[in-house]
Amino acid sequence: MRHTLFQAFFLSFILIIAQQISSVLFAWHIIPLTEISLVILVFIIALGTENKLILLTACFTGLLLDLWSPSGFGTIALALTLTLSISIEIFHRALTNKSLSALLILGVTATFTYRIIIFLINSTQFLKNPESVWKALLDSMMKGGVQAVTHSMFLLILFVGSRLVSKRLHPHYVHSS
Amino acid sequence: MQVVSTKKLLIPILVFIFFIIFINRTEFLGIAKNNIIKVFEPVLSTSFKISQSTYSFASNFFRTSRDLRSENETLHAQLLEQTQLKAETTRLRMENTSLLNLLHYTSSTLNKISAQVIGVGTESTVQSLIIDRGLNDGVTIGDPIIAEGGILIGTVWKTQEKESIIELITDNQSRIGTSILNKDRSIGIATGSHGLSVEVEMIPQDEVITEGDIAITSGIEKSIPRGLIIGTVLSIKKEASEPFQTARLQLPIELNKLSWVAVLSQ
């Protein structure tokens, strides 16, 4: 357990640096086009990593990202952990063939799940201004659409890269495991 | 294929997160958070600066010579216009100073606190930046943030001991009382448009706005003084069936290239 905790801390550290770099490098105006931490964690699911490590990393990464988040403390940690647990369930129940399409479906689902959870957690702010809820929802989904495309591109790069160096995402690995 | 359940793992993790949220306001967690921020700040700030420089280099590299030529022509025209404006401003400033002296007017009571941009907010649903000034420096929620030249870029959304998070004016939830410097001195509300630009809403249909008119803060909010520049009118959206028209603004600066800003604190 201690080993897993250490690994999760280390991964979280790497992920928040990656997130900060990607927020600037892959931004259009000031809009971050990628939630790189989400993309990497989704990819780690597809690699067949231990669930405990994925969920702990999601929790620690979320709590660290919450330190610099405009939303209430805990929002990203909750959203990231719930999104990843849903993604793990989907991946192990429905998308078992480890193909590129399965990975992309998982990426798109995780992107929209994450945005919906964040939107629901932040929805209390619309109590003061209920008429803005639809505009905010539309905006969030539009950005979600853009993010789904960029996340898919990143997953494609990671998929191709990993196939060159590892056998984990080859179909025969699934059969043998 | 074995179905792996995450329920057993998820419940203790969620309990842990809720516990952290619950004790968030206690002093103990405040100290822990500040220490973590202190450890991460140099890493965050360095990675932000490196990626900002890389972004600037890449965006300049991919510009074509045609873009540069057209930008040069625009800048020449603007320079000529600015020279004329400068002469006019100098005359008005002298006139204003003598009038203010007559009225014994003391200028704004707001303090300017310079701050460095050290990162981008970690949540992509809100357009935000992180600055290295916080509660210890006198920054409070709602304080306006300006860039060089008195250009409003946003307001303080959240403060911590040594850092603050700014909500940019391009964010959808941002609302700033605005005055357009046209013949009618139209007033409206500047709101972010999908994080890309700013639109001034609620301008009465009968008032005449033209492209190039300057939009400034109206001073209706207690913490935001009148006269901070928001942008210039780029286009106007007017529909006969609507009681109000909307002006789309062009921002005078690129928000993703900001390094230094100033907080106007009470």
Automatic annotation (TrEMBL), chain A:
Ordered alphabetically, the record's keywords are:
Membrane, Transmembrane, Transmembrane helix
Q: Which domain of life is it from?
A: Bacteria
Q: What are the TM regions of this chain, as residue ranges?
A: 76-95, 102-121, 141-160
Q: Does the keyword Transmembrane helix apply?
A: yes
Q: What is this protein called?
A: Rod shape-determining protein MreD
- List the source organism: Candidatus Magasanikbacteria bacterium GW2011_GWA2_45_39
UniProtKB/TrEMBL annotation, chain B:
Q: Any idea which UniProt keywords this protein has?
A: Cell shape, Membrane, Transmembrane, Transmembrane helix
**Gene3D superfamilies in the cross-refs:** Rod shape-determining protein MreC, domain 1 (2.40.10.340), Rod shape-determining protein MreC, domain 2 (2.40.10.350)
What sequence ranges are listed for the domain Rod shape-determining protein MreC beta-barrel core? 117-264
The keyword Membrane belongs to this UniProt entry's keyword annotation: yes
**Gene Ontology biological process terms from the UniProt entry:** regulation of cell shape
Transmembrane spans = 9-26
Name the domain of life: Bacteria
Which NCBIfam families does the record match to this protein? mreC
Q: What PANTHER family does the record point to?
A: CELL SHAPE-DETERMINING PROTEIN MREC
Q: In which family does this protein belong, per the annotation? A: Belongs to the MreC family.
Protein name, per record? Cell shape-determining protein MreC
Source species of the chain? Candidatus Magasanikbacteria bacterium GW2011_GWA2_45_39
